[in-house]
Amino acid sequence: MRWRRGAAVIISKKARDVPQAKAMDYVGGYALALDMTDREIQATAKVIIIICSVN
């Protein structure tokens, strides 16, 4: 199992092409994020996806 941590930004409302000066108006909060990946399951899933794509 591999993991990594990071920061997440919570977007509070729909947005598109927001100018940098207004960006903070769309931030609803912050959170700590933890990404945990089981590499064995991930490798198996990639093989299944490739096989299904070929058919």
From TrEMBL:
Pfam families (UniProt xref): FAA_hydrolase
EC number, as in UniProt: 3.7.1.5
Fumarylacetoacetase-like C-terminal domain span: 8-46
Signal peptide limits: none
Molecular functions per Gene Ontology: acetylpyruvate hydrolase activity; acylpyruvate hydrolase activity; metal ion binding
Keyword Metal-binding: yes
Top EC class for this record: hydrolase
The name this protein goes by in its record: Putative acylpyruvate hydrolase
